[in-house]
Design a protein that fits this description.
two-stranded antiparallel ribbon, single chain, bL21-like, 124 residues, eight-stranded antiparallel sheet, Large ribosomal subunit protein bL21, 0% helix, Ribosomal_bL21, 10 strands, mainly beta
């Protein structure tokens, strides 16, 4: 029996080229949708479904903040990461097939995860 599984990959795109080599880099690690994502201003990321309409602003919980040479982690992070909801999306189709030989047992099920596309607007 051949099994088909498809894994949802979280895509992260940036509008500008990466500036991680300079000393004045500002980025944050945020907790979003059960995962942690590295974001900076202008990044677009796809997370699990969030309540809200396109154009609304949401705040993401920062776990770590890097501001040049200064790194802040844990409960010491006093910054807020704001993002704008771009649109609601659906993930790729996952086909689930169950089959048992010689018994006539077959079950087919499909699943698409609900996602939200966000654009990071500020790290304060």
């Amino acid at each position: 029996m051949e099994r088909w599984y498809q894994v949802t990959v979280n895509h992260r795109m940036t509008d500008s080229p990466s500036t991680e080599m300079s000393s004045n880099v500002v980025y944050a690690i945020v907790k979003a949708g059960g995962r942690q994502e590295k974001v900076s201003v202008g990044d677009i990321l796809v997370v699990d479904r969030l309540d809200g309409k396109p154009g609304e602003t949401v705040e993401l919980q920062p776990v770590m903040l890097v501001d040049g040479e200064k790194v802040t982690t844990g409960g010491d992070v006093k910054a807020t990461v704001t993002a704008e909801i771009v649109r609601a999306e659906k993930g790729p189709k996952i086909n689930i097939m169950k089959f048992k030989n010689k018994t006539g047992y077959r079950r087919r099920q499909g699943y698409r995860s609900s996602l939200t596309r966000l654009k990071v607007t500020g790290i304060n």
